[in-house]
C-alpha cells in the first residue's frame, strides 16, 4: 500500500512510520503544520507543531529513508478546531479538541488529501488497535492501557477505519522508546506533548480571556444568591472546584462546585458535591465505528480521555443516543464526549448535550 505516515516530531509517530516501512508499505512522511506561529520553538513538554518538531520529524524520515513533506493545514485547524473550541466554551460547554482534531484534521483533511494524491491509507502513532473480523475492521483499545487513545479515536467511522493504521497498539510506551533508541532516532527520549496543543502554557482560562476579553458576571448558589463574581463564565466548567474565589461561604462549610454554566445570563451556578452525580447522559453528533447499535445495548461508557469505563445501557435514535450509567459519576459537562465500548471494541461516540439523574439504577 501507499501510506502517508503522519509525523508529529515525537517518538510515537517516528516508530509508527518506521514500522510501516518494515511492513513493506510505500511510505511518505508528512508533518502537519497546524500552528499559525510555528516559528516559536518548544519551551517545555507542552504544545506541538513547532519548527523544532518539524525538524525532528524530518530527521527521522531521513533516517528511515522515506520522502518527507510539510503540509500546511494551519487555516483548517484554526477554523475546525480552535474556533470550535472557543465557540463551545462561549456556549457554556466543555469541548475535547483532540477528538475534533482527529475527526476533522487527521482523519478528514489529511486522509482526504492523501486519497486525492493517490495514497491508500494514513498511519499515525496513536495507541489503539485495528482488528480484522468478518471482513470488517474494528477499532480496539491498545495493549498499554496507560497510553490507550481509543477514546480520542472514537469519532472515526467505518470508512475512515478502513484506511487507517495504528502500528503501536500492541506495544507499551517503554518498549516504543527502547525501539526508537535501537533505531538511532534522536527523539527516543523526547518528552511527550500533553494538554491542549495550541495552549502551550496550559492556562486555558487565560487563553480564553485573551481571546474573548473579560466579561464580568455573578456566581450564584442554587437558590440564586450571589456568592461571588467572575471575569467570564466561559472560563468555568461543570465539576470545577478550584479558582472560584467565592466571597460568601456556606453556613455548614461544605465545599461548592460549579454545577451549571449559563452563557445567556453570563452566570456561573455553584452547589454542593452531591449535585454533580448523574447517571443519564444524552448526546448527539453520533459517530459509529461500524454499524450503529440497534435497540438497547449493554456497553461500557467512557466520559473522559483518561476516565474509567462505566457499565451502561445505550439506546441510539437517529443522530442521538441516550446512555444510562450503572453508577453515578460526577463532573460531566455538555460538550464533552461519551465513547461507547463492547469489551475492548469501540462502538462509537457522541457529543454530550445534557445529563440527568434517574430514580433507579440500571440493572446489572
From TrEMBL:
It catalyses: S-sulfanyl-L-cysteinyl-[protein] + uridine(34) in tRNA + AH2 + ATP = 2-thiouridine(34) in tRNA + L-cysteinyl-[protein] + A + AMP + diphosphate + H(+). GO terms for molecular function: ATP binding; methyltransferase activity; tRNA binding; tRNA-uridine 2-sulfurtransferase activity. It comes from the Bacteria. Residues 207-271 form the tRNA-specific 2-thiouridylase MnmA-like central domain. The keyword Ribonucleoprotein does not apply. Catalyzes the 2-thiolation of uridine at the wobble position (U34) of tRNA, leading to the formation of s(2)U34. Belongs to the MnmA/TRMU family. This is tRNA-specific 2-thiouridylase MnmA.
Amino acid at each position: 500500500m501507499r501510506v502517508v505516515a503522519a509525523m508529529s516530531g515525537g517518538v510515537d509517530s517516528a516508530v509508527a512510520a518506521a514500522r510501516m516501512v518494515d511492513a513493506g508499505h510505500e511510505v511518505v512522511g508528512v508533518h502537519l503544520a497546524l500552528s499559525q506561529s510555528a516559528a516559536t520553538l518548544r519551551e517545555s513538554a507542552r504544545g506541538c507543531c513547532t519548527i523544532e518538531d518539524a525538524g525532528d520529524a524530518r530527521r527521522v524520515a531521513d533516517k528511515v529513508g522515506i520522502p518527507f513533506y510539510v503540509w500546511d493545514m494551519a487555516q483548517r485547524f484554526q477554523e475546525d478546531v480552535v474556533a470550535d473550541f472557543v465557540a463551545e466554551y462561549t456556549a457554556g460547554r466543555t469541548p475535547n479538541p483532540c477528538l475534533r482534531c482527529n475527526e476533522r484534521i487527521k482523519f478528514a483533511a489529511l486522509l482526504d488529501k492523501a486519497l486525492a494524491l493517490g495514497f491508500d491509507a494514513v498511519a499515525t502513532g496513536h495507541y489503539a488497535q485495528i482488528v480484522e473480523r468478518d471482513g470488517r475492521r474494528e477499532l480496539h483499545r491498545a495493549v498499554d492501557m496507560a497510553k490507550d487513545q481509543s477514546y480520542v479515536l472514537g469519532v472515526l467511522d467505518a470508512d475512515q477505519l478502513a484506511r487507517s493504521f495504528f502500528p503501536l497498539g500492541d506495544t507499551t510506551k517503554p518498549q516504543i522508546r527502547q525501539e526508537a533508541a535501537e533505531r538511532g532516532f534522536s527523539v527516543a527520549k523526547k518528552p511527550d506533548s500533553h494538554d491542549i496543543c495550541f495552549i502551550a502554557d496550559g492556562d486555558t482560562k487565560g487563553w480564553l480571556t485573551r481571546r474573548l476579553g473579560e466579561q464580568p458576571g455573578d456566581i450564584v448558589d442554587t437558590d440564586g444568591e450571589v456568592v461571588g463574581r467572575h471575569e467570564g463564565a466561559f472560563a468555568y466548567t461543570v465539576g470545577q472546584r478550584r479558582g472560584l474565589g467565592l466571597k460568601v461561604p456556606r453556613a455548614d462549610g461544605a465545599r461548592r462546585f460549579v454545577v451549571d454554566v449559563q452563557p445567556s445570563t453570563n452566570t456561573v451556578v455553584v452547589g454542593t458535591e452531591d449535585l454533580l452525580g448523574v447517571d443519564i447522559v444524552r448526546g448527539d453528533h453520533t459517530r459509529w465505528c461500524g454499524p450503529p447499535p440497534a435497540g438497547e445495548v449493554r456497553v461500557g461508557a467512557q466520559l473522559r480521555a483518561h476516565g474509567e469505563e462505566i457499565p451502561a445501557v445505550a439506546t441510539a435514535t437517529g443522530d442521538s443516543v441516550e446512555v444510562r450509567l450503572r453508577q453515578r459519576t460526577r463532573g460531566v459537562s455538555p460538550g464533552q464526549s461519551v465513547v461507547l465500548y463492547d469489551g475492548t471494541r469501540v462502538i462509537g461516540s457522541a457529543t454530550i448535550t445534557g445529563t440527568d439523574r434517574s430514580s433507579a439504577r440500571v440493572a446489572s
